[in-house]
Write a structure and sequence with these properties.
mainly alpha; membrane; CCDC90-like; mitochondrion
């Protein structure tokens, strides 16, 4: 082990200051022992470069394993989110198709009913004109007018019912769409938090 001072020069310095040669050598050997003991204690707490590089390589390999696990987890989570998003899109398309089919059906039914009512009204009106020509059937004309107003009321109520039904379908679609969007956002935020 190398010493970082000259022991002979220290012995000479001690002899010049009144110590004997034997006392000077004992003092210097005691100092050397103390320094060696201190250096041994310091070296116990220190690590060599080789040990430090081995520990660094172990930490880097552990970090690489964690990165691989995170990439695998990310891919599986992303594919799960994508498949769930596709399912939601398919469900929305099916619901949209069902609603459009219902709307088309209701419109067709209403058109058919309106055409039937119009034809009835036309027949009644033509019949009324014939009846008006005769004075005997004047009372029947008033009854037909009542029938026309009732038909108009029926048409108005059916149109109002259709409007309310369409509005309720629109609200249901909006609710489902909003729920789906919030679900996708919640999942995306969760994935974002995992990523960060």
């Amino acid at each position: 082990r190398k010493l970082f001072f000259d022991t002979h020069a220290l012995v000479c310095l001690l002899e010049e200051n009144g110590f004997t040669t034997q006392q000077s050598e004992v003092i210097v050997s005691a100092l050397v022992k103390i320094m060696n003991t201190n250096l041994d204690m310091i070296y116990k707490d220190m690590v060599t470069k080789v040990q430090q590089e081995i520990a660094l390589q172990q930490i880097m390999s552990h970090i690489g394993g964690v990165k691989k696990d995170m990439i695998i987890l990310e891919k599986s989570e992303f594919s799960a989110l994508r498949s769930e998003n596709e399912k939601i899109k398919l469900e929305l398309q099916q619901i949209k198709k069902q609603v459009m089919d219902e709307i088309t059906k209701v419109r067709a039914d209403n058109k058919l009913n309106l055409n039937l009512e119009k034809s009835r009204v036309k027949e009644l009106v033509s019949f009324d004109y014939c009846l008006l020509e005769t004075s005997k059937h004047f009372k029947m004309h008033a009854q037909q007018d009542r029938a026309l107003t009732q038909t108009d009321r029926k048409i108005d109520t059916e149109v109002a019912d259709l409007k309310t039904m369409l509005e309720s379908h629109k609200l249901d679609n909006i609710k489902y769409l909003a729920g789906s969007i919030f679900t996708c956002l919640t999942v995306a935020l969760g994935f974002y938090r995992l990523w960060i």
